[in-house]
Design a protein that fits this description.
By secondary structure, this protein is mostly helical. It has eight helices and two strands, in the order ααββαααααα. This is Phage lysozyme, putative.
Length: 245
Amino acid sequence: MASSSSSKQAKPIHRMAWRLGVSLTLLLGLGALFVLPKFDPKSLTWPTTEPGRIAPLAMSGGNPYLRALMRTISASESNDASPYTVLYGGSHIENLQEHPDRCIPIRWGPNQGLCTTAAGRYQFITTTWLETAEKYHPAPTGEWMWRRYSFAPEYQDRVVYAWLDDVNYWGTDIPQLLEDGQLQTVLKRLSGTWTSLGYGIESNKVTPHLMHIYERMLAEEIALANGLPTNYLPTVANQSVETTR
């Protein structure tokens, strides 16, 4: 009899709890409509390539010298068959609607014991991504403190391309230096930002090969700009192409 009486009293309590749960779910769902960034289908697709090759850029167009430099930077910074989704340490993410902002412990090198939020093809840490995206991102969403910057592959490329092309920021004309054959000058100038480029504190096994990598990437990008197959690798010398800035 006691158990029967208790179950009768419990029924309205369970019913109230269920209603409260439904109400909270609805409220949270409505709140998400105002807080979550606008969905961008570009965040669900990204280029990949077979191991041993350097993935093509997701963006189209632009100066082939800058494009080759971008692929060279990523060869030493991300060095992955699916570079746009890679985190420091080699794990991958699926959601690229925003910078992932995950601080991963550094297990070797001069910064061992700290953690880093480096992510994507160019290993942007969160603060650098937000600063550069604010200036160069072509399609931010939201306003004021709710502004968001998609981390989709094309936008990673476009932010870096515009950044490298900014003479005022770097104090020098990087595309012109590249066209004049001064790659080492460019790598030295950029090594404070990307520390694996040979003049920083985190050289790696790819660093000694950057000149060769750049030459190969430039040959591919010149071929692409001239409408040739991407697997066609002309000699860099004597190649002429109309570059766009």
